[in-house]
Amino acid sequence: MVTSNDLLIKQRSVIEFSAAEGCSAANIHARMKTVYGEMCTSDCAICKWVRIFKGEDPRETILRDRKCSGRPFSASVTTHREKVDCMIRANRRVKQKEIANAVGISKERVHHIVTTVLVLNS
């Protein structure tokens, strides 16, 4: 089964090849629409990728999405869950703020782990 990420990369490859041949974005979209149907990339996205591909050497183009900046998705990792669990088992009266400071995550994340994750694992 093809994932949506794999499908995007395949379609970007088609866009890159067609743009290298000199096809317009509208022509590429029309041709891709007949092949991919409803799963076809939007015409705006195709225009964006055609602009990108026309300005770069095809051998150096990266088809995968680049990492976005932002908050890392690390507050729910297993080590944090285990630390929270250990702290609660050691002292049932420990405050969420104390756990958050000790583990290095937000109070809201501690609350989520305590009320959702640890309750389900009990």
Summarize the structure.
The protein has 122 residues and is mainly alpha-helical. The protein contains 6 helices and no strands.
Low-confidence runs = none
Strand count, sense and barrel status of the largest sheet are:
none
Rounded radius of gyration (Å): 24 Å
Query: How many domains?
Result: 2
Helical segment count: 6
Q: How far do the termini sit from each other?
A: 35 Å
Could you tell me the strand content as a percent range? under 5%
* Percent helix range: 55-70%
Output the structural class. mainly alpha
**Mean pLDDT score:** 82
Number of strands: 0
SSE succession: HHHHHH
Overall form: elongated
InterPro entries: Transposase-MT_Hybrid
Protein name: Histone-lysine N-methyltransferase SETMAR-like protein
Write structural notes for this entry.
The chain is built from six helices and no strands. With 122 residues, the chain is mostly helical. It folds into two domains: 57 residues; 44 residues, Arc Repressor Mutant, subunit A, CATH 1.10.10. Helix 1 crosses helix 3 and helix 5 packs across helix 6. It is elongated, with a radius of gyration of 24 Å. InterPro entries: Transposase-MT_Hybrid. It comes from Plakobranchus ocellatus. This is Histone-lysine N-methyltransferase SETMAR-like protein.
